[in-house]
Amino acid sequence: MIDMAVKPKPTLKQLVFLAQNRIEAALNNHGAAKSCVSCSFGKDSMVVLHLVRVYAPDIQVMFNNTGVEYPDTLKFRDRILKEWDLNYTEVHPKKTFWELKDKYGWPDRRFDGKKGQHTVPCYHYLKELPAAEFWAKEKIQLVFDGLTASESHARWMLAYRCGGGPYYYARSIGVYKSHPILDWPADIVGKYIKRYNVLVNPHYTKFPDQRVGCMSCTGFLDWRENMAKAFPAMYRKIQKERGQKLLEEYAAEVSKL
Ligand code: SF4
Q: pLDDT per residue over 169-180, tens digit each?
């Protein structure tokens, strides 16, 4: 007989316990002085920062400021720096998003087999390189981040099957990666934030379904809808430059059919 019992969903308490175990194990292996938290000031990053600082309050915190961050994120960063007294470093790319776009084209959803939705040169110059230089300079061995697989089963599979998982050596960048909340669904992240009063980037209050991060990125499936709402002037400018129609122009055409 087939067992039709539905597996119960893990609770907040269980997932916090799992994340704490991952953090403790990683810190025991590398020590807080050779570790850092990579923080984007998004919800998931803030939860990981909150969890890790219980064990290592002075751990280095690195923000990769791509130069195309939402103004809300920068204001939120300033607030957190004031209120959380972080051991903080901000890294910046040597080439701007706009220079990279002129040279390599707009970010798109090409899947390059390694880096998912990022267009390779854009991701490399804006994110990978500044972070790698910082880690090498500070002799960082271990990096915590707020990666979650809740939005995509494919991402979860990729994390576990392609040398990823919650803790692993990322050979291409020469550091260990720890994703303490990899298995957390979005509702558990929300419950943690509420339960522990973690501050949240105001971008989510204005646009609850959107991501924070490069506001000019054209590399995500729903970037048009999101950018048109969050930053309409930039959306119009980008579509004009790309020689493409605006969403409302498509809608007007469809309504005439
Ligand atoms: S999110 Fe988009 S703009 Fe930012 S680094 Fe990745 S591809 Fe480039």
A: 988 889 999 999
